[in-house]
User: Fold this.
Amino acid sequence: MIYNSEHISITQLQAKDALQLNKLLVSNTERFIRYLPITLSENRTLESSINYIERKIEAAKKREEFVFVINDKNSRNIIGLIILKNLDWENKQAEFAYCIGNRFKGKGLMSKAIKAASNYAIETLGLETLQIISHKTNSASVNVALQSGFKWKETLENEFTPLNEASLDMELYEFSIYEK
Assistant:
């Protein structure tokens, strides 16, 4: 467990999470499709979620990517995901991607979760710079970045292409142990 509070806990993704992960992603497809199309496509069925988890556990063992689940302490359901990706061990840098179910948005839970995951990434994994890349119109994601102590750095031109859309400029937010 990397974080535990009155309302949520955060753990690394495990085999036992397949059904809950699949339910979260399938039931929130409309909410997640624009910015998480690959994760969604890899979790369309329970079987595909099982395979996804197996791959992500292996990636974590190789220190290539880490996937964390956010659990609601009341229902014990998975309510969100945090993916620590694009790890650059030489520069001690990585990027967060994240999502939270529609029923739990706007409660400040993701900001708390990103702060906790940031602490884990710095204190346990030894990373020094963490990034969040978000579109300027995704106000919820921008707010998570800002509320979690990340600072806007620059606009990345044509950084991301959603399904069936033109490429988008994205905003880069960073948290560095050297900037406080």
